[in-house]
Specification:
With 272 residues, this protein is mainly beta. The protein has a single domain, classed as Beta Barrel (Porin), CATH 2.40.160.20. It is built from 2 helices and 15 strands. It has an 8-stranded antiparallel β-barrel. Strand 7 and strand 8 form a beta hairpin. The longest helix is centred in the N-terminal third of the chain and has 17 residues.
Length: 272
């Protein structure tokens, strides 16, 4: 998926938040109600330039492709409390400040994995690494092999965020109610970046690396008033100006990218 498509979706989702503000049918919701949910996500990322800087190198890899990493489904990995944070998950708790508006706190645990062996262009220099990669690069084509770079936010690309959402119930059939949701939010990025650059030690630690903004649209299906199933489409922008790549604090990386996220979540609404 190209970056123009992701930007367009992000803009459209942002606009729906404002154009859907006239909702009158609020369904089950009342001021003071609280909900929470848990579920899983699938993510797609735009290409990005990744800038690496250290004592003996300063270079940029251009138009890097990356993908998410889905965990193979087993009941133990997805439903066992001791392992359910391994897959790409979404957690959220929200509070209704009005009958159709809630504010919420959530964690989006995504995974960002750079595709190995892709042929990319590199600009900058590397020196005194003791490898064949020492040299000056001027938009030079280079395969990103394991001996050069392994780079992923796989434990994961953790987006700690706050949202505001608007709800509109548009259909009720017996004990089942259908609602549309639009929202937007922002937060900070706390990735656990797993990186191996040249001969440097592998780094795999949590580090506050940047921020994100996003917009979303969702379909909520409420069952017997309090239980619900929800599908969400989210589009966002992530800026990571301070990524730790090795155990040496002088070794850093930075990148910006857009993303699309599809979520399937299950939740409960407490009425007060």
């Amino acid at each position: 998926m190209n970056i123009s498509s992701i930007r367009l979706l992000f803009l459209c989702l942002s606009l729906t938040f404002f154009t859907n503000s006239s909702a009158q049918n609020t369904g089950n919701y009342n001021k003071g109600d609280i909900y929470s949910y848990w579920g899983w996500n699938w993510s797609w990322y735009s290409k990005s330039d990744i800038h690496f800087k250290g004592d003996n190198y300063d270079f940029t890899i251009h138009n890097v492709s990356a993908q998410d990493r889905q965990t193979a489904f087993t009941l133990d990995k997805y439903l066992n409390p001791s392992s359910m944070t391994i897959p790409q998950y979404n957690f959220r708790v929200g509070y209704f400040i009005k009958k159709n508006i809630d504010i919420s706190f959530g964690i989006d645990h995504m995974k960002y994995v750079m595709q190995q062996d892709q042929l990319s262009r590199i600009s900058g220099f590397i020196e005194n690494s003791g490898t064949v990669y020492d040299g000056v690069y001027d938009n030079t084509l280079l395969p990103i092999s394991d001996g050069f770079l392994q780079f992923e936010h796989s434990d994961g690309l953790n987006y700690i965020n706050f949202e505001i959402r608007k709800h509109n119930m548009f259909l009720e059939q017996n004990n089942i109610k259908f609602s549309s949701i639009t929202g937007m939010g922002l937060g900070f990025m706390l990735p656990k970046t797993n990186a191996k650059l040249l001969t440097n030690d592998r780094n795999d630690n949590f580090y506050l690396s940047g921020y994100g903004v996003h917009a979303l649209t969702a379909l909520n299906v409420s069952l017997f008033k309090n239980f619900f199933i929800q599908t969400e489409f989210k589009g966002g922008f992530t800026s990571l100006p301070s990524i730790r790549t090795t155990t040496n604090k002088s070794d850093t990386a930075s990148q910006n990218f857009f993303y699309i996220q599809y979520n399937l979540v299950f939740g409960y609404l407490w009425n007060f």
